[in-house]
Each structure stands twice: as structure tokens, then as C-alpha cells.
Design a protein that fits this description.
Structural class: mainly alpha
Strand content: 5-15%
CATH architecture of one domain: 3-Layer(aba) Sandwich
CATH superfamily of one domain: P-loop containing nucleotide triphosphate hydrolases
Helix content: 55-70%
Strand order of the largest sheet: 2-3-4-1-5
Number of helices: 30
CATH class of one domain: Alpha Beta
Length: 706
């Protein structure tokens, strides 16, 4: 028998009949094409800016596609960060690499108006993009099987937007390589990463430069140039969130509103979110975008989120989070991890977390001012006070004890094994402690409002944060006055006087110390106030008054058998008589040094050796002076006082220059300049130079806060 073979090949197949012999009529009914090539991408926005690193990352995944497994990428980030805009923009740029089509599905995971797409329906929607809807199987399992068969061997781009969870997209994933699936979500889809090896990219807010370009794309460069200060303010208020920036920029363009008036709108309303909405456009309502994420939180996460937004600082560690959430630390870790997965909280450093400013604003709207808020804040302030107090006792163990309320959660306090640990704790938490101090003042919690500044004063001294010191202590004085505690007010006024003295505001400093003398009936307090007055008079150049106050303070310290107080005052007396009686000045400083060495006070030793070196240099004993100044430099470095290390290094360089050791002097002077430059960068030049003038070795020999 002869055999006949026919072949038919096409990407679109209609009806086909193959027969060897036909008897009678043949009726052929044609169906729709078996496979259609979809082009479903939404139009891209013309206001897209930046994101080059993310675009390159996605393109790199396509170009480096593994030939054995289907490529999947999850792009997650907080609401309003521009995930959809980025995904659509990139998909258009890459569409020619997917000749078999590009499919877009809005999964409505966090729509806020419509219910999320069910997983079975997601598979149906994708199938209907590829074949005649009438041929889509009714059974879910059959749909998935049909979809994967259709995608096998083809190059299709699937953009699955706004997924609520891994389960919502699993039915849609291709089963073989060739296709690329990009999924956007407000949540980190761990299931896809773990089970299918999906790549992940978290989308951050725009940089300042990108934010400027986005605003300019709406209003034009001319308006940007006319009102630079308002542009800067808008970028700051919107904190790099593309949705918020787009709303304010669109308002400026559509309503012909000045950028300055938009800044006013953001600041004038009950909340900045009031101004971040284009009337009638729900898709441009920032508050609604946040709300749809918030309402999806289960009860325990909702409570944790509402507590965390109360934190007044830029970021929070796990221990402080456990305090404000009021749960055990292991529970706090789990809840923070889940909030991070949902992009409601962002990791800022290992074991530290923060919130976007506008998300915090939204959260505060849902926290209220009731018992929940007060309990959370009191727990946080209690924690921070005891953290600061524990660290402060290592920095200055010689100051008078402070009676605090009981620590509510001692298990949350950091382990501090020494001076360096204490400095690290303060260095990490300082901004949060300052923010907590301001919070206590606003809330009228007077004990915290003065105790927190008191515990911060020694670290503020070491790091030359004079302005912070003054502002927090001015608040503390007001708080103490309300509590009518004269002895506490005296202590705070002494500390405030020291801060004014460091800033060179000598009249204010004298006023605070003299007020402290009137308020404090305690001999130790009076001695400290007289010591402080002596220091003010030395700096102001009123040396006779400095000697008078210093001698009175020394008498009281001797009665109290207070070695540290005696040593500090001896240093002040040495400085006061250095010009008129250099030998006596040297004797004072040597006595002070011996006392500081006896009690093991490295801070005091650093001051005394510096003061002694200066006195020896003034007396012409330059070799001895160099020895003492070098020891002072090392001690200042050990106690972490970069400012005085630099100033003492500079004086040592001058002495070495007199001795003819020019190269060593030059190297030391350069190091001093670098140290002061670093300090200027961290604190601001006005705060480093102690009232605009150079600080001599030993000039800060009175205790920073006792």
C-alpha cells in the first residue's frame, strides 16, 4: 500500500482535515486560534525617573537566564514607592525579547476598593489572554495544566502586579524555562523565594536628585529654579516617596499652585497626608494607599505597628521595640520581622528598624491619645532612661547618685562591661535619647524631662554637643520647677551653667551657678557650684574671683573628703594663678594629678596632665611639658574626648617646635587639624571651639556633671 504523509506547522492553527478517501459530504467548523500573542502592558508614565540600578538588575536577570528553570523576580516595597511604575517602564523596554507576548494582571492585593484576585481566577485571566475564553477549562487544576502546556517552549513576559502573597501567583507560574515572571508586592514573598528560587529586589525611596527630577518633570525647570527652597522643602516633606512627590508636583502643574503654597499645605493641615491627594483620584490618595496595607495587618501586628510609630527617633533597636510594644524580646523580633516582610517597617542596620516619615504620620492617626499611647510611651521612656543611666555610670562613676523609678524591663538593658561599651551605647542611641527627652517635655512627664538630660550631660560634654546640652537642660529646669524640688533644680542649674560656660556665654553661666548656690543646702552641691563659678571666672579672665570661688570650693571638698572635687578645684586654681605665680600653678596641677591617679580617674588625669604641661611650658620647662602633654593626648584619646585630644595635640606641637623637633611637630599639627575637622563635621564648627576660641590644655578640668 502507498503511504501519504502530510505536515502542518504554524503558531496559529485553524481547522485541518487529513483523509485518504472521502465518501459523502465533509463539514468543517473552524474554531478560534489556538494561541494568541497578547500585548497587555499598561502605558508607561512619562514622569518615570531614576531607578537605573533596578532596571539593570532586571535586564541582567533576563540576559543571564538559567536555561533549566523559569525565571521569576519579586519586586517589593512599601506603598507608594513606585513598584508598578518601575515594572511597567522596564517591561516596555524589554518587550521585544518576548515575541510570544506580554501579559499584565492586576492582582488587587492591596487595592483598598476591590477584593484581591483569587488564585484560580488569576490562572483563568492569564489563559484568557492566550486562548479563546470559551476554551478555558472550568476546573482549576485543568486550567493550571493547560496554562503551563501553552507556555512551554514559548517566551512570554508575565507582569503580575500587587500580589497579596505567594499563594496568589503560584498557579500562574510557568513550569518550564523561556518565560519571565515579574511580580510586584508590598510584602516580601518568602514562599516564592524559598520554593521556586525567585530573585528579590526591594525598592527604596528616590534619592534627592531623583526626587528633583520627578518634580521637574511636572512643573518644568523654570519653576524649580524660581523657588529652590520650596523644592527642597517638598522633597524633605515627601521623604523620597514617588507617589507623594507625584501628587504635590501634579497639583502644582494642574492647579497652577506655587510650590511654596504646597509646602504650606503640607505643614498647615492636621496631617501632611491631607495635602497628598488629587481630588477625585483614589489612585493618587497616599493615605488610602497606606490604609490598604494597614487594614491587612492581623491584630498583633497592628498593635505593634501602632506602638512603633510612637517612637520619636529615626530608628529603634529590638530591645527598645520590645519595651514600646510591651512584649518579650523574642516576640518583638518575630513581629518586627513580619512587619519588615510586609514593608511597613524597614531595616536600617543589623537589629535596627525605622519607618518612612509618611507611614509614621499615617500610623499616628490610628494611635490616638488614649491609654494605649501613654502606656507605650512610658515604657519606652523608662527603658531609655535606664539605658542612659547605666552607660553614664561608666563614663563618670564619681558623680552623685540619681534616684530613678524602678526599671520596668531590666532584661532589655544592654550589657555594658566598661567605658568603651558605654561610649558605643551613647554613640548609637544618642539621637533617640535626645528625641525621648523632647517627648517627655511635650507630654509633661517631668521626672523623665529632667532625668534624661542629666544622664546625657557627660556624653554631651565629651562630644561637644553644647547646643543639645543647653536646650535639654533649659527644658529640665522648667520641669523641675513644676516639681518644686530645690535640690534637684540646683543640680540641673549647675549642669546648665556648665553648658553655657562651654558656649562662652559667661553671664548666663554665672547666673545658673549663683542660682544653684541659693537652691542647694547640700555641702557637696555648694562645693560643685563654687567649682563651676571658678571655672566661669577663669574663662572670663576674672582671675581674682576665680581664686576666691576655688578656695571656698576646695575648703568644702576637704571637709567632705571628696578627692575628685579637690583635684578638679586644684586644677582650676592652678590655671587662675598660672600667669602670676607659675611655680604655684605647677604645684596645684601636680597635687591634682596625684589625687586623680589615686582614685583611678582617667578623665581627671587627662585634664591634669594637660594643665600641668601648659604650666611647665609657660615656665620654660619644655622637655617636661612635652612629656605631660603627650600623656594628656593619650589619655584624652582613651576617654574618647576627640576635641581635647586635638587641642592638646596642637599645644604639644607648639612645644615640640620650640624644642626644634619640626617634623614631629608638623605631623602632630596635621593630625590635630584632621581631628578637629572630623569633630567639626560631626558637631558643627560653632560647637567645637568652645565659644569661638581655642581650648587650652586642662581648661575643662572641672567635672562635666557631678
Amino acid at each position: 500500500m502507498d503511504h501519504t504523509y502530510n505536515a502542518l506547522s504554524s503558531s496559529k492553527v485553524g481547522a485541518a482535515v487529513q483523509v485518504g478517501m472521502v465518501k459523502g459530504d465533509v463539514h468543517v467548523t473552524t474554531g478560534g486560534p489556538e494561541f494568541m500573542v497578547p500585548h497587555q502592558l499598561p502605558p508607561p508614565t512619562r514622569h518615570f525617573v531614576g531607578r537605573q540600578a533596578e532596571l539593570d538588575f532586571l535586564t541582567g536577570l533576563v540576559e543571564g537566564e538559567d536555561g533549566d528553570v523559569p525565571a521569576i523576580c519579586v519586586m517589593d516595597g512599601p506603598p507608594g514607592v513606585g513598584k508598578t511604575a518601575l515594572a511597567v517602564h522596564w517591561a516596555h523596554s524589554i518587550r521585544n525579547r518576548f515575541p510570544d507576548g506580554q501579559i499584565y494582571v492586576d492582582l488587587r492585593g492591596f487595592d483598598g476598593r476591590r477584593t484581591p484576585v483569587e488564585p484560580d481566577d488569576a490562572a483563568r485571566i492569564v489563559l484568557e489572554a492566550l486562548v479563546d475564553p470559551r476554551s478555558v477549562p472550568l476546573k482549576p487544576d485543568s486550567r493550571i495544566a493547560r496554562l503551563r502546556s501553552l507556555l512551554h517552549g514559548r517566551r512570554v513576559l508575565l507582569l503580575l502586579d500587587d500580589a497579596r502573597g505567594s499563594h496568589q501567583v503560584e498557579a500562574v507560574l510557568p513550569g518550564a524555562p523561556g518565560c519571565f515572571t515579574l511580580i510586584t508586592s508590598r510584602e516580601r514573598l518568602d514562599g516564592l523565594i524559598g520554593r521556586y528560587g525567585a530573585r528579590r529586589r526591594n525598592l527604596a525611596v528616590l534619592t534627592r536628585a531623583e526626587s528633583r527630577r520627578l518634580i521637574s518633570s511636572y512643573v518644568g525647570s523654570r519653576q524649580m529654579t524660581r523657588d529652590e527652597s520650596s523644592v527642597t522643602a517638598l522633597i524633605q516633606r515627601c521623604a523620597g516617596l514617588p507617589m507623594a512627590l507625584s501628587v504635590v508636583a501634579a497639583r502644582a502643574a494642574l492647579e497652577e499652585t506655587s510650590l511654596q503654597s504646597l509646602v504650606h499645605d503640607l505643614d498647615a493641615g492636621r496631617s501632611a497626608l491631607d495635602a497628598l491627594w488629587l481630588g477625585g483620584e483614589r489612585e493618587s490618595d497616599v493615605r488610602l494607599a497606606f490604609s490598604s496595607s494597614f487594614v491587612s495587618l492581623p491584630g498583633d501586628l497592628s498593635s505593634a505597628f501602632r506602638a512603633l510609630v510612637l517612637h520619636p527617633g529615626r530608628d529603634i533597636d529590638v530591645a527598645a521595640a520590645a519595651a514600646v510594644i510591651r512584649v518579650p524580646i523574642d516576640v518583638a523580633k518575630r513581629r518586627l520581622g513580619e512587619l519588615v516582610r510586609r514593608n511597613m517597617v524597614l531595616p536600617t542596620a543589623p537589629a535596627r528598624f525605622g519607618l518612612h516619615d509618611l507611614i509614621r504620620t499615617f500610623g499616628l492617626e490610628h494611635t490616638g491619645r488614649g491609654g494605649f499611647r501613654r502606656r507605650a510611651l512610658r515604657a519606652l521612656l523608662n527603658h531609655y532612661l535606664h539605658v542612659a543611666h547605666r552607660a553614664d555610670r561608666w563614663i563618670n562613676p564619681h558623680r552623685r547618685p540619681l534616684e530613678l523609678a524602678r526599671c520596668a524591663r531590666p532584661e532589655l538593658l544592654p550589657e555594658i562591661g566598661g567605658y568603651d561599651d558605654a561610649l558605643r551605647v551613647f554613640g548609637t542611641e544618642y539621637d533617640n535619647l535626645i528625641a525621648a527627652t523632647r517627648l517627655a517635655g511635650r507630654e509633661g512627664w517631668d521626672d523623665y524631662a529632667w532625668q534624661l538630660p542629666w544622664t546625657l550631660s557627660n556624653y554631651a560634654y565629651l562630644t561637644a554637643r553644647w547646643t543639645d546640652w543647653v536646650l535639654t537642660h533649659e527644658q529640665a529646669v522648667s520641669a523641675v520647677r513644676r516639681s518644686r524640688s530645690a535640690s534637684v533644680e540646683a543640680r540641673i542649674r549647675q549642669s546648665l551653667g556648665r553648658a553655657y560656660n562651654e558656649l562662652g556665654e559667661f553671664d548666663k553661666a554665672r547666673g545658673e551657678y549663683e542660682a544653684a548656690l541659693l537652691f542647694d543646702d547640700d555641702l557637696s552641691g555648694k562645693a560643685n557650684a563654687l567649682n563651676g563659678l571658678a571655672g566661669v571666672h577663669v574663662r572670663a579672665g576674672v582671675l581674682s574671683s576665680a581664686i576666691e570661688c576655688g578656695e571656698r570650693a576646695l575648703t568644702l571638698y576637704c571637709e567632705l573628703d571628696d578627692d575628685v572635687g579637690q583635684a578638679s578645684t586644684l586644677n582650676l586654681l592652678g590655671r587662675a594663678c598660672a600667669g602670676s605665680e607659675p611655680r604655684r600653678a605647677i604645684e596645684y596641677h601636680e597635687q591634682a594629678l596625684r589625687l586623680f591617679e589615686q582614685v583611678g580617674d582617667d578623665y581627671g588625669r587627662a585634664q591634669s596632665t594637660g594643665a600641668l604641661g601648659a604650666a611647665l611650658a609657660a615656665a620654660g620647662r619644655h622637655e617636661d611639658a612635652a612629656e605631660q602633654l603627650r600623656a594628656s593626648v593619650e589619655l584624652h584619646r582613651a576617654v574618647g574626648n576627640q576635641r581635647l585630644e586635638a587641642n592638646t595635640s596642637r599645644h604639644l606641637a607648639e612645644v615640640l617646635s620650640v624644642l626644634g623637633r619640626q617634623q614631629e611637630a608638623s605631623e602632630l599639627a596635621q593630625r590635630a587639624a584632621r581631628l578637629l575637622g572630623a569633630a567639626d563635621a560631626g558637631q558643627g564648627a560653632a560647637e567645637i571651639s568652645s565659644g569661638g576660641r581655642s581650648v587650652a590644655p586642662g581648661e575643662d578640668s572641672s567635672p562635666p556633671s557631678r
